[in-house]
Amino acid sequence: MTTSSARRGPAASPDLLLVHGAWHGPWAWDLLLPKLPGTVRTVALPSSGADLSALGGFAEDVEAIRTGLAKSADRPTVVVAHSGSGLSTTQAVCGQRHVLGVVYVAAFVADVGQRVSDLFTGPPPTWWDLHPEEGYVDALTPLPVFYNDVPTDIAESCAARLEHKSLAGAQ
């Protein structure tokens, strides 16, 4: 028995939802956005920000991603998770039938429900500037940690935009 398939036109691009990593914001995707086809959205994670009183944790990040996904609930969507957002993205996409897949970019990949503290034991990294009383952490040396292979002008510009990361979102 032979089968044949009808020739179809090019498939439409799925929507993309871009989720930034820790200490970053949606601005982290600015250089990439003009190069992407179709409908592209970004998410601002509540666990990173300038306002310490407004910082959220893991659950708030998951909810922000789900809210972003709801905007494309009737369209096939691919989620791109960067760095620390891998954990909250994994949790957020569960049960989202329109999500075709997740692309993890230098990101944590874990099972549903796992957090950073489940993956690592021991003291925090030496490049963390911990503020436990205030509930946040800053990156002490972002240039070598995050941007060691990025052109200097771009690396310095990005490092200047980094914000606080809530401890609740980092654990």
What does the average pLDDT come to?
90
Give the neighbour order of strands across the main sheet.
2-1-4-5
Instruction: Tally the beta strands.
Output: 8
Low-confidence stretches: 1-9
Share of helical residues: 25-40%
Run of helices and strands: EEEHEHEHEEHHEH
Structural class: alpha/beta
Rg from C-alpha positions?
18 Å
User: For the record, what CATH class applies?
Assistant: Alpha Beta
Number of domains: 1
Shape: globular
In the CATH hierarchy, what is the architecture at level 2?
Answer: 3-Layer(aba) Sandwich
Beta-strand portion reads 15-25%
Distance between the termini: 57 Å
| Biggest β-sheet description | 4 strands, parallel
Number of H/I helices = 6
Write structural notes for this entry.
There is one protein chain. The chain has six helices and eight strands, in the order βββαβαβαββααβα. With 171 residues, it is α/β, with parallel strands linked by helices. It has one domain: 3-Layer(aba) Sandwich (Rossmann fold), CATH 3.40.50.1820. The chain has a four-stranded parallel beta sheet, with helices on one face. The longest helix has 13 residues, at 58-70. The N and C termini lie far apart (57 Å).
